[in-house]
Specification:
The chain is of the alpha/beta class. The protein has 3 domains: 8-309, 2-Layer Sandwich (polyphosphate kinase like), CATH 3.30.1840; 320-489, Endonuclease Chain A (Endonuclease, Chain A, 2-Layer Sandwich); 501-684, 2-Layer Sandwich (Endonuclease, Chain A), CATH 3.30.870. Helix content is 37%, strand content 22%. It is built from 20 helices and 26 strands. α1 (8-24) packs parallel to α4, α12 runs parallel beside α13 (378-388) and α16 packs parallel to α17. The termini are far apart.
Length: 686
């Protein structure tokens, strides 16, 4: 009998609810709550562009869709819409409360109707100087052509009414938040600080745009259209949907609508016009909302509050590699394996490693996988510098990194121009593994140094993503990392792997074998446990094996931030599954896998989640951590997370996302682990 699972798209919505909870939580600093509103909104945008868009396309396949995903996509879409509508109401109420709370701290977000004369003059001057030249109002209804609304842009839908003639004109104005700041600071009045949104600046001077019309009433309501992003279907459904990258990018811009959001006060006739002209159907999410949309911009709200309105600073700690940098980073790695924790440690240390390799006369070659890069990437600069210094540099660039495709094409061209060998991934498989290999000539032999990470080589995201990066000289790992790069170069050559678990070739089978070992040990009465820290746990086969392990007596801890398809509360599982999620100031991104193995613990780190796409359709690597001291450090990290009682939610069958409260003293895991590393730094300081 197939154990009960929850649909992964539905489980994703419960994950995003945990983000919304942070915006609602009065214990979270006020400006951080605003930021969480932006994160929630941005997450939901991508969810509709990819996940919902895929489901909508699957409805066209009829009964075939059941064979692909095991459920009726129409039913899933209906459930999604119901949950999103409920969350939207909570979101709007939370924003209203935040507005009130900001006022208590003399921060006022004002609209066009709340401006005094001095503020009105300031806004008018800004409008005519900066905003008006960027506006292109399009009149609706004057031709059969309806304007092409950009994906995720926001628009003012304007209604101009003349009561004496009974005529109404409509217009559409894109709010130019892509070229102008969404927020404008108004002149301060004593201790009071004022912010107005670009939307309301335009509203304030609408009469200066439509002066040619004779009207009695003018209204403007924000609307937003989300379109099908197209590309994700190659991962999650069937290879027949794969498009060439350039074609897919073009189709993304021209994608069909999947969600239409509107200000609930919009005139009904104007709303019906949009629904009709955009050919929106019952399968599309048509969502009434508040006055503002594109809350992702609120992640960049001007920082004008007191320091207590933000999280207290946690400046990156100096890692042992940096503290002893004069010894040489490569030499230190040769002495012992090292582990970095981001964002607690600075990513600059990895850049320093690349720079050292670039000028070290004994370094012959650098190889690296690149998935997402910083906007101004120091990694790219270091690789180019190495190539200019005569090193052989190879970069495996994944062109299908979702929403980073164009950026990765740009970086690929730049690297190629500078003499770097660029490999464009592997046909039919995404390269998601985070690997770097440095080859050094020592005693006339090629000696490997490897870095294996759980997150991207991206200095922008390592400041907010909680990730791990292993530096190792251990030949059991480095020789096999070299074989992975050999496969990138020669796709027909698949080498055996003893230490690394590599997908799509060996990972699934060997992972299940690790679970089965715990089951066998539990049945023999031996100690047996599994600890999994992940972003997403949705693979049916893996979850079923975990159910079987729990039934056999294996103690299982599931620390899963995002999608979670398991239903862990069942008498037959004997209370052997503990599952929880941590949402806090840093995004928990590291993947860690621990198996008891009859007392000889096995530790692995990876960039792979337990999803079908990671196990079957991507190049992923689970890398063992052999060093006992590093195993202890990872154990401490996981133990601290398990004791968290401030930012942890229980994952259970009710999907209630209740905060976990346990008998420990108040403990916030991310802060506590920072303090642990801080003490370690003091002990290892030279």
């Amino acid at each position: 009998m197939r154990p009960t699972l929850i649909n992964k798209e539905i489980s994703w919505l419960y994950f995003n609810e945990r983000v919304l909870q942070e915006a609602e939580n009065p214990e979270v600093p006020l400006l951080e709550r605003v930021k969480f509103m932006g994160i929630y909104s941005n997450n939901l945008d991508e969810f509709f562009r990819v996940r919902v868009a895929t489901l909508k396309r699957l409805t066209l396949l009829g009964k075939k869709a059941l064979n692909i995903i095991g459920e009726d996509p129409k039913i899933i879409l209906k459930s999604i819409n119901n949950i999103v509508l409920e969350q939207t109401n909570r979101f709007d109420k939370s924003f209203e409360q935040i507005i009130k709370d900001l006022r208590k701290h003399n921060i006022y977000i004002v609209n066009e109707k709340q401006l005094d004369q001095e503020q009105g003059e300031f806004v008018s001057n800004y409008f005519h100087k900066e905003v008006r030249p960027k506006l292109i109002p399009i009149m609706l209804g004057q031709s059969s052509e309806f304007p092409d609304m950009k994906d995720d842009a926001i628009y003012l839908a304007v209604s101009l009414s003349n009561k004496s003639t009974g005529k109404t004109n409509y217009s559409l104005i894109q709010i130019p938040s892509d070229v102008l700041p969404r927020f404008l600071l108004l002149p301060q009045k004593g201790l009071r600080k004022f912010i107005i949104l670009l939307d309301d600046i335009i509203r304030y001077r609408l009469k200066d745009i439509f002066y040619v019309f004779k009207y009695d009433e003018i209204t403007a309501n924000v609307v937003k259209l989300t379109k099908d992003a197209e590309l994700d279907i190659s991962d999650d459904v069937t290879e027949s949907y794969i498009r060439k990258l350039t074609t897919s990018l073009k189709q993304r811009k021209e994608g069909s609508p999947v969600r239409f959001i509107y200000d609930q006060h919009i005139p009904k006739d104007l709303l019906n016009l949009f629904i009709r002209k955009l050919s929106l159907s019952d399968l599309d999410a048509i969502i009434p909302g508040g006055r503002y949309h594109n809350f992702k911009d609120f992640m960049s709200l001007p920082n004008i509050g007191n320091s207590d309105l933000k999280y207290p600073p946690l400046p990156p700690l100096q890692h042992e590699l940096s503290a002893n940098i004069k010894k040489g980073i490569l030499k230190q790695i040769r002495d012992k394996d090292m582990l970095m924790h981001f964002p607690y440690h600075s990513f600059i240390t990895f850049i320093d490693l690349l720079r050292e390799a670039a000028i070290d006369p004994k370094v012959a070659e650098i190889k690296i996988t690149l998935y997402r890069l910083a906007k101004n990437s120091s990694v790219i600069n270091a690789l180019i510098n190495a190539a200019k210094n005569g090193k052989t540099v190879t970069a495996v660039v994944e062109l299908q990194a979702r929403f980073d495709e164009e950026a990765n094409i740009y970086w690929s061209n730049k690297l190629t121009e500078e003499g770097v060998k660029v490999i464009y991934g592997v046909q039919g498989l995404k390269v998601h593994a985070k690997l770097c290999l440095i080859t050094r000539k020592e005693n006339k032999k090629n000696i490997y140094y490897a870095c294996v990470g759980t997150g991207n080589f991206n200095e922008d995201t390592t400041s907010i993503f909680s990730d791990l990066l292993l530096y190792t000289y251990d030949r059991r790992i480095t020789s096999e990392v070299a074989r992975v790069f050999d496969f990138f170069d020669k796709n027909f050559k698949i080498s055996p792997f003893r230490s690394l678990l590599v997908s799509p070739f060996y990972l699934r089978k060997r992972f299940i074998r690790l679970i089965n070992t715990e089951i066998q040990n539990a049945k023999k009465g031996k100690n047996a446990y599994i600890y999994l820290k992940l972003n997403n746990l949705v693979d049916d086969e893996i979850i079923i094996r975990l159910y079987e392990a729990a039934k056999a007596g294996v103690k299982i801890t599931l620390n899963v931030r995002g999608m979670f398809s398991a239903l862990p509360d069942s008498p037959e599982l004997k209370n052997n599954i503990e599952s929880f999620a941590i949402i806090d100031r840093f995004l928990e991104h590291a993947r860690i896998f621990v198996f008891c193995n009859d007392g000889d613990e096995k530790y692995y780190i990876s960039s792979a989640d337990l999803m079908r796409r990671n196990l079957d359709n991507r190049i992923e690597v689970l890398c063992p951590v052999f060093d006992k001291e590093l195993q202890k450090e990872i154990h401490t990290f996981l133990e601290i997370q398990q004791k968290d009682n401030q930012s942890t939610r229980i994952l259970d069958n009710t999907f209630s996302n209740k905060y976990r409260q346990n008998g420990h003293k108040e403990l916030r895991a991310q802060r506590a682990f920072y303090e642990y590393l801080e003490k370690k730094m003091e002990k290892t300081a030279p």
